[in-house]
Design a protein that fits this description.
With about 220 residues, the protein is of the alpha/beta class. It is built from 9 helices and 8 strands. α1 (about 20-30) packs across α2 and α2 (about 35-50) runs parallel beside α4. The longest helix has 19 residues, at about 35-50. The radius of gyration is 17 Å and the shape is globular. The N and C termini lie close together (about 5 Å). The relative contact order is 0.14.
């Protein structure tokens, strides 16, 4: 965050049907979750590859554990790798939906994490500290990025407890293979405190708000 250089962008879904979670739950009920999930990822990667071709960037996209375990996932992964531009690194933010919590062990048992790394696909855990992700999973999976929930940023100026938790995770990441991204940064004061605590990467409205592709290089930058 020190020089505010862009690390990457997060692709977000917007639909006139309703909230994205409603859209995906509808797809789950109709047994079309894999189709919606994979087509969303492919479209994001295709559009982003056209815009930032020739520049080094990372694109964060959400994906469900059941998609990673689907029998057609390998074919999808080959197509995805073929579509991405040379300068684009893809980061899978694994969705922590409670309906799929029992699938996480399978990701390790079936070697999905190793497969992704062989294909140069990075892994991120989102909403850490507030969602379903446990400390055990942080150790077992060793994700490339740990995205700390914005709960810990909101009011951190007045909370020693939140500051201690952020320092703990920053120290954990500094000695391992994971990088910490703190979400929900909205003020210069929050930015300053996090920077003093050794946080390297951040995301939030202080840097940019979500915007359509045609209005910005891409949406929701991560610094």
């Amino acid at each position: 965050m020190e020089n505010r250089e862009i690390l990457g962008f997060e692709a977000l879904i917007r639909s006139n049907i309703g909230h994205p979670e409603q859209l995906f739950e509808m797809a789950r009920r109709e047994d079309r979750l894999f189709d919606l999930d994979t087509q969303s990822v492919l479209r994001a990667v295709s559009q982003c590859s056209q815009v930032i071709s020739g520049r080094k960037n990372q694109l964060f996209v959400n994906i469900y554990p059941s998609t990673l375990l689907h029998h057609e996932f390998h074919a999808f992964l080959d197509e995805l790798v073929f579509q991405r531009s040379a300068g684009l690194d893809i980061v899978f933010e694994i969705n922590e939906a409670i309906e799929e919590f029992d699938r996480w062990t399978e990701l390790l048992d079936r070697g999905i994490v190793n497969l992704l790394h062989k294909k140069a696909i990075l892994i991120a855990f989102d909403d850490v500290g507030e969602g379903a992700i446990s400390l055990k999973q942080l150790v077992d999976f060793e994700p490339d990025y740990i995205k700390l929930s914005k709960y810990f940023t909101n009011g951190l100026e007045h909370s020693q407890g939140k500051q201690r938790m952020i320092r703990m995770l920053a120290e954990f990441c500094s000695g391992g293979s994971s990088e910490l991204i703190v979400e929900g940064i909205e003020t210069e004061r929050q930015f300053y405190i996090l920077e003093q605590m050794g946080v390297v990467y951040g995301q939030g409205y202080l840097f940019a708000k979500p915007q359509p592709l045609e209005e910005l290089v891409f949406v929701n930058p991560i610094l």
